[in-house]
Amino acid sequence: MSAAEAPTAGAAGLGIRRPNATFSARFFRSELRLVFGRRRNQAGLAVLTAVPTFIAIAVKTTLSQPGQDAPDFFRSITDNGLFVALAALTIEMAFFLPLAVSVVAGDSVAGEANIGTLRYLLTVPVTRPRLLAVKYAGIVVGAFAATFVVTLVGMLLGLVLFGGGSMTLLSGTQIGFGAGLLRVLGAAAYLACGLSALGAVGLFASTLTEQPIGAMVATVLFSTTCYILDSIPQVSWLHPYLLTHHWLDFGDLLRDPIAWNNILAGLYLAAGYAIVFFAAAWSRFAGKDVTS
Amino acid sequence: MSDLAVRTRGLTKRFGSQTVVDAIDLEVPDGAVYGFLGPNGSGKTTTIRMLLGLVAPSAGEVELFGADIPARAAEVLPTVGSLVEGPAFHPYLSGRSNLQRLDAADRTADPATARTRVDAALDRVGLLAAAGKRYRAYSLGMRQRLAIAAALLTPKDLLVLDEPTNGLDPQGTREVRQLVGSLAGDGTTVLVSSHLLAEVDQMCSHLGVMHVGRLVAQGSAAELRGHGVAEATVETEQPGEAARVMRELGLTDVRTTRTGATGTIGVVAPEKVVAACVHAGVGVTGFRVGRPTLEDVFVSLTGEGFDVSG
Fold first, then answer.
1. At what angle do helices A212-230 and A96-115 cross, to 10 degrees?
2. Given an 8 Å threshold on Cβ–Cβ distance, is A14 in contact with B65?
3. What residues of B are in contact with residue A124 (Cβ under 8 Å)?
4. Which is it for strands B158-162 and B80-83: parallel, antiparallel or unpaired?
5. For residue A9, is pLDDT > 90?
6. pLDDT at residue A3 is higher than 70
7. ipTM of predicted assembly, 2 dp
8. Where are the domains of chain B?
9. How far is CA B187 from CA A97, A145, B123, in A?
């Protein structure tokens, strides 16, 4: 192979074989095939697309427009099909998307431990930091995939049923279709970042147990508890630190000018959660006895 | 001193207040086929997990080919193939996909030759025809074969096989034995744990015996068998008489059973025992002299039957 490898191989004695110097994404690709090839996850993605589908059809088949008391995005659907995606994201962020991410994240390490493949990966060897990094990368890709599948299906159905054209923002301003499309995709990316942070919580939970279901439930409980605490005014001092606190502020991207305050706060919070919980997963997993 | 493929010093593992592995000094010479024996629950698997860096020792050190584990695991483990506590694969992936995943995880493997490597490993254990089937549809024997194939994806300097013939039929057991033999012939060091003595007896050059977390004996197979001395057994209807004659002849540790008498023969010529018995009017129906089987050695070391948990 490469010239750089020859001396390494020559120097290595009996029982020593050093990794190829070049970066390899093979294990990461294998992880993605594992996550996306799994029937359960494919079925989960299909279920996620049911929400935008249902919204689009329901709005289309009811005679009148959604009433003035309907949530923001619903009132705008008949004006611009792109709003189907935003309405679907609003609904799914409450439970379905966090659940989907919790399933993938909770399964990440605990699933391998449960069926015993963890010991064989570690003896290949995959170093423990690399295993966690690849597992988390898989979770992040999963979070983005889930969010964008909902968004794209919503936009597509919306455009077919209600048409596109220029978009009237929540602040009343009109922007062109291209700019509107970008803002919806931006909202989806923002939410995917929040979900990726939840994925780090799930990764940590997954290093605590050999039961993937347990880790999944713990992660769902975490996001649900955040929502509940966020709705209790007596603990308002806690609200700015709750992972879910800024999730539904993604609507701020649909204002003119964009209200960046909450969006940035949400991104910082997500980054903080991701770092803290990835570090927690690492400290937990680094020296853990693998007896599964 | 010859080079050691595996060396542990004072290796100890405690789980809570229980000491599962107690200060063992394992020495597996390079090129040996080392039979790691012990009843179920004697600490074999925990020791193997420590050798592979899966479990951190409570005390003591592990070296594979002179390199410290777990510190240098990343460069040593690629040359170590292992089978720990049975096969484990993703049930909904095919045998081939499972091997491809393990190959993809190996940073020392050349991606360009992955397909050849995986197919060669499958072929070696006779699974090529079933490679496309989902793992969940595999029989226990096929699963075990797949695990062996996984251990042999890349050339190995050391194979650590924990109960490799579990679940295999006699045919498969013989194949594993031949495989281990041919690998050892190529210079691969093999550490094979088992509670099946006959199996180990047939393939090992060295033995180590675990009992309740301790390594109670270790050495070459010949040395270990030498611990047991030859015994003469006279089969007769008159065990008491036979025993008396044998004691008079100078046999030691003579004991009677329902069907005869047995004693340590020492320097006494075996033919004299029969002659003396006949001369004394003892009807001899059978006579044999033998070294103890590995099982006898084992029982004398661990003081209990083989399948009893320690």
1. 150
2. yes
3. 77-78, 102, 105-106
4. parallel
5. no
6. no
7. 0.88
8. 4-221, 231-290
9. 54, 49, 21
- For chain B (length 310 residues), average pLDDT per consecutive 10? 85 94 95 90 93 96 94 94 94 97 94 95 93 95 93 95 85 84 90 82 87 92 74 88 89 84 83 88 86 74 56
Q: Does A129 touch chain B (CB under 8 A)?
A: no
Residue A12 has pLDDT above 60, yes or no: no
Which tens digits make up the pLDDT trace of A162-185? 988 899 888 889 999 999 999 999
Of residues A14, A19, A119, nearest to B108 (C-beta) = A19
Please give the structure tokens belonging to residue B278.
């006949």
Domain B231-290 has CATH 3.30.70: yes
Q: Report how far residue A37's alpha carbon sits from residue A105's, in angstroms, rounded to the nearest whole number.
A: 15
Q: Which CATH superfamily is domain B4-221 in?
A: P-loop containing nucleotide triphosphate hydrolases (3.40.50.300)
Mutate to test the interface with A, among B97, B101, B191 (most CBs of A within 10 A): B101
**Does residue A69 have a pLDDT over 90?**
no
Preceding amide of B87 cis, omega within 30: no
Mutation test of the interface with chain B: which of A8, A17, A128, choosing the one with the most B Cβ atoms within 10 A? Answer: A17
Burial of B144 (0-12, 13-18, 19+ CB in 10 A): buried
pLDDT band at A1 (very low <50, low <70, confident <90, very high): very low
pTM recorded for the entire structure: 0.88
The three-state (H, E, C) secondary structure of chain A, written as one string: CCCCHHHHHHHCCCCCCCCCCCCCCHHHHHHHHHHHHCHHHHHHHHHHHHHHHHHHHHHHHCCCCCCCCCCHHHHHCCCCCCHHHHHHHHHHHHCHHHHHHHHHHHHHHHHHHHHCHHHHHHCCCCCHHHHHHHHHHHHHHHHHHHHHHHHHHHHHHHHHHHCCCCEECCCCCEECHHHHHHHHHHHHHHHHHHHHHHHHHHHHHHHHCCCHHHHHHHHHHHHHHHHHHHCCHHHCCCHHHCCCCCHHHHHHHHCCCCCHHHHHHHHHHHHHHHHHHHHHHHHHHHCCCCCC
**Residue B58 DSSP one-character state:** S
